[in-house]
């Protein structure tokens, strides 16, 4: 006797393909959707379909957008002299939340990782270099993750872009605000000491 | 400037309505769906729609099913002398997984909870009593949750069904297998002692 009616089994299988969703969570979500209003469940289905149909990468910066160019690239209020380079489109939001940065963005689509077979040619690096050719950009802020792959990508980009006479900076690495020295790992602490500033 | 393009914002909002999914998890799931194959994302949307269109409560027992009566009620291999009463349809699977129970089921659709305004008339109790009228059923096993509401429901059902000359039993409450006495709460331990058996 099967565990579930076929439509439930299928829904659980599809939910399980989401990151961080195992068998039990998928079952819980599936039964929630079955108990929920018809409208609520179908609204989720429609939101997925709508997002998938109407979103595409911005042809300029690679941000996920429903208008091309995206809202950052199209905005006359943004500073066109700075481009912040990130690995993925969802890295843009935390930077926006700081309300400190008002420049443009560039989404690489990942980081250089020889182990995973991601080389510079798999990333959106050529389009980034193209963007620098109009001479408007004065600074590239590299905000890739502080991982081995993100650091390698930062070094690679720096070597490529500095010869063009453009300033290349890297976001700071160190102890998170509100955290304690005691709980920092050695590598973070080392980076924090290396990145010390005059007071 | 909005945080996200409208279709992303809408998808995140719909995902946030799922139980246990907050803003950050919803964002992570949404961006996963946006990065995923078109086929995978649309398969999830379609699975939700399909489940919602094709599933309904079994007219006999209340289990969620795509065929009416459900696979348990329709099966000639199941023992029709026993009915196991559960709160929700998803409580059936863990009981099936034991491979010990081969009777029928009855889904109440909740438990008696005066605080939440759920009385016996909001639950599928009348249909259960109807099912007992053919005289075929010999035992009702009450498998509501071992919570105040589940216990109250068990007592209520027992008072209602015992006068019909049908045996009413309650699943055992006690220390979970593989656990240690040290970690059991007092109420569970009390119940375990009350439910002790001869060796």
Short overview:
The structure is a homodimer of 199-residue chains. With 199 residues, chain A is of the alpha/beta class.
Strand order of the largest sheet of chain A: 4-3-5-6
State the separation between the terminal residues of chain A, measured CA to CA.
Answer: 71 Å
Largest interface: A-B, 57 and 57 residues
The SS-based structural class of chain A is alpha/beta
**Large-scale geometry of chain A:** globular
Order of helices and strands of chain A: HHHEEHEHEHEHEH
Count the beta strands of chain A: 6
Descriptive report:
The first copy, chain A, is of the alpha/beta class and about 200 residues long. Chain A has a domain at about 80-170: 3-Layer(aba) Sandwich (Dna Topoisomerase Vi A Subunit, Chain: A, domain 2). Helix content of chain A is about 40%, strand content about 15%. In chain A, the strands form 2 sheets. Chain A has a 4-stranded parallel β-sheet with strand order 4-3-5-6, covered by helices on one side. A two-stranded antiparallel sheet of chain A has the order 1-2. In chain A, strand 5, helix 7 (about 150-160) and strand 6 (about 165-170) form a beta-alpha-beta unit. In chain A, helix 1 crosses helix 2. Chain A starts with 5 loop residues before the first helix and ends in a 5-residue tail after the last helix. At the A-B interface, helix 1, helix 2, helix 3 and strand 2 of A face helix 1, helix 2, helix 3 and strand 2 of B.
